[in-house]
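Title: Request for sanity check on Response regulator transcription factor prediction

Description:
We are preparing a figure and want to confirm that the structure record we downloaded matches what your pipeline produces today. Could someone re-run it with the sequence below and paste the raw structure tokens into this thread? We only need the token string, no images.
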Amino acid sequence: MAIRVLLVDDQPLLRTGFRMILEAEQDIAVVGEAGDGLQALDQVRALQPDVVLMDIRMPRMDGVEATRQITGPERDGPAKVLVLTTFDLDEYVVEALKAGASGFLLKDAPAHELVQAIRVVASGEAMLAPSITRRLLDKYATHLPSGDEPMPDTLHTLTDREVEVLKLVARGLSNAEIAADLFVSETTVKTHVGHVLTKLGLRDRVQAAVYAYESGLVRPGAQ
């Protein structure tokens, strides 16, 4: 079945461009458009898209709040949010990731990257290079705890190896790089990542990276 996509951006010209790119793909169907966050919520309820391509800065309701409502506990469907931004270090991106977005993409990204991002997010994975997560969190470290606060009890549910894996995810390593670093197979790493997400109640490795910083397990700027 085709991946159902909702386009959310306050610029009609950009929505038209995205539609042209995505509708050229046999496995993607653009089911609707919205010009702000409030319209997006209505469209998500009505159209039940698989992926919402979400602008951040919009009138009436911005993309961060819309993302929070679409992916939150009261959500009406399985829609995943891929955030669009003009700048690769937009402070709102951090908030959108914390709100439940599955990743972000620059608006000027090549067409093939947009298409691939839609497919990756639709499959349940996170579309965000861990190294970019690190850059974002480092740049906006003032929004995060100082590290003096006690670590949350949920961290104690992880095994020592799972804590190691979580630290490496937060520091920008891919599954293959983690496998090489720990001298284990990539399949084993995927298993550990899955256990971390389940135990901490997180949806993907993006939220895991944010959690690692917020909990004080990894300090901004630490190597």
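Thanks, this matches our download. The chain has ten helices and five strands.
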